[in-house]
Amino acid sequence: MEGEPVAFHGAIQPHQEGKRLDPNSEVSKAHAKSLVDSHDRVLQNTLETGSYSKLYSFKYILNGFAVHTTPSQAKKLKGFPGVKSVETDRATKMMTTYTPQFLGLPDGVWTQEGGDRNAGEGIVIGFVDTGINPSHPSFAYDPREPFSSNISRFSGACEAGPQFPPSSCNDKIVCARFFSAGAQAATQLNASVDILSPFDAVGHGSHVAATAAGNAGVPVMVNDFFYGRASGMAPRARIAVYKAIYPTIGTLADVVAAIDQASTDGVDIINLSVGPEEPPEDSVTFLGIFDIAMLFARRAGILVVQAAGNQGPGPSTVVAYSPWAVAVAASTTDRIYPASLLLPNGLSIPGVGLSASSSGSGSSSFYKLVMAKDALQPNGTFPWTPQYVEECQYPEALDPAVVRGSIVVCSFSAGFFNQTSSLTAIVDTARTLEFMGFVLVANPTYGNFIAQPIPLSVSGVLIPKVADAKIVLQYYEQQTIRDGRGFVTYFGARAAIGDGRIASFSGQAPVVARFSSRGPDFIDSNRSPTDVLKPDILAPGHEIWAAWSPISALEPILTGYDFALLSGTSMATPHVVGIAALIKQKHPSWTPSMVASAISTTATQYDNTGEMIMAEGLEIGSLFPSTYFDSGAGFVSPSRAMDPGLVLNSEFEDYIGFLCSMPEIDRAAIRVATGVWCGQALSHPANLNLPSVTVSALTRSLTLRRSFRNVGGKPETYVCSVIWPNGTTVDLFPPSFTIASDGTQDLYIEINVTLARNEFSFGLIVLTGSLNHILRMPLSINPVSIY
């Protein structure tokens, strides 16, 4: 809708970047009511009575509403005076015991900030997700250790409901709300799991919140095994919950309503480990309602951190597009859980699975090894499908006399490939028929499969590589005697399952995870590249322990557990959010873009072996040198981010200038999406003052500018150097400079094409300070023509 929302209404206060206002003041309330009234008038004057249901009025950072109606009725809204645009709602989806140590927090930033009992103190993080499990110890409040910082500026509330009594909010969980109008309009909800309260029936929201801000030192116990102690990145930060995703469905309407409310309440940072599944159909990526909501949250002084997506490793798969939000890619750590299948001939076949050994004591006693297809019920009446014959999905298909006390080999066959079979069913079958253990092996017909180490309540191991599976099957056949019809007359093979719960700390890390979405960033549904680096940063997102919800509505195999070991950019995002909270705690006056700059320019591009960070490819085990489109600026370095020396800042007006400089975007569309007329456009989109330089199509030459501010506290002299991307030369002016404390300095970057490549190549700008500050800025250039 036309007209300013509450946060930027001139009658309340002149716009100042990041300045807070009181949404509960009389002036704010009056303007909010006038907006709601205007929304109702538009609907009453445009749509037929009874043809619609208004779901939300957006008032604080957006002026608009969500309405459930028919497409034909929706078309009537488009031409009505005061209506700027209409966008179809879209589906949204969900995108530790060790990572604080891996990131160097306990002996680094936490120590500097007074230990884990102070890390993140005074910062409020908003989590737009699936809710929270309020009874989890990661979110408990201990009155013996009260919070020292006042958060009176924060105005959130606690909405009680099923499984979420008013006492669920404490000084740790300071706000809990839920948004369901979009979900309820889109489909029939399942009352048993789509709980209309902030309670988390999925587990995802609890996992994310605990990773960023869970209490320090919480014991992780799963299946009576102690895996260590879990801590959030900023364990003293406060948690504000905005549930907008349900087991049955998630809608953009609910997510946008949650972002608007979180901004109203006054959170410092928003964690978005959720988002639309695809870019907007009818507009450029930057101008969809989701990205515009993030832009206005940013305008209100809130740092927004967003999951890059889990659609890797192909190019242009990111689902985070805009320069005003930080997009996080996911990496591995050097912790692995090495499970194995042991054979009497001395072979140890590597596998995956968090379970006890088949002997229950860690020893390697061997048990009869049986292929499921060789243990079928004689004269069975079941369907002869892979689920019954070889996938161990149905206990009634197997002969109890054969499989009881044995290790049974199940095959990753058609049912798993088509996602109709499950590991949960194998565990149930193993428990029902009293297997000593099970092995799920790769099937050559379907190739290698991707396996995550899931806690198993029975002894089991997954062998995801075809080559390893063939070794097991060859040994089995050598030891098995069959009659002329192929039926087994003697099971001679023996095996043992090794304990898969003991962590090993070795190997190359971090490595960009296979699933992590990749750049280049793009502007439309044709995947046309644009002049913004995405993802922005790399953080741990592979096999992360954190809080869970025992209902586990979408993961039956994790039902009953209080912790889960998960992978995804959803898990990487709260790592960066927690680190941002630590930075914001130390530098409360910094704007969101200054915090983002500090995280980016201090990132490392090297792994724990001193080599360049690698990235996983499509094939299991394949590694390739990463580019900035895999890892962003590099792997997050919390200690260095606390003291970056220089930062780059961008304001709301700069983002508008960026949009207005893009030839692919109609200026009228920018006015419609943002409510702001194009004034002073940037000379080139790549001139936005980001801590990276990306040029999607460079013809002949281009000179860009970056402006730095000294936040190091002392004057410092910097020497500038550059590694040229292939096909270019790059010159920096000035080549060195001295900058006063709190002073600013412009750096001009002249890029010339020497060879047209029509593909991106990569370089690096390095600023080395006399007081040991080092800034690194990625260069991603596509030289298309020397003329």
UniProtKB/TrEMBL annotation:
Keywords: Glycoprotein, Hydrolase, Protease, Serine protease, Signal. Its main location: secreted. It is found in: Secreted. Residues 120-607 form the Peptidase S8/S53 domain. InterPro entries: Peptidase_S8/S53_dom (IPR000209), Peptidase_S8/S53_dom_sf (IPR036852), Peptidase_S8_Asp-AS (IPR023827), Peptidase_S8_Ser-AS (IPR023828), Peptidase_S8_subtilisin-rel (IPR015500), Peptidases_S8_3 (IPR034197), S8pro/Inhibitor_I9 (IPR010259), S8pro/Inhibitor_I9_sf (IPR037045). Residues 31-93 form the Inhibitor I9 domain. Belongs to the peptidase S8 family. This is Subtilisin-like protease SBT2.4. It comes from Rubroshorea leprosula.
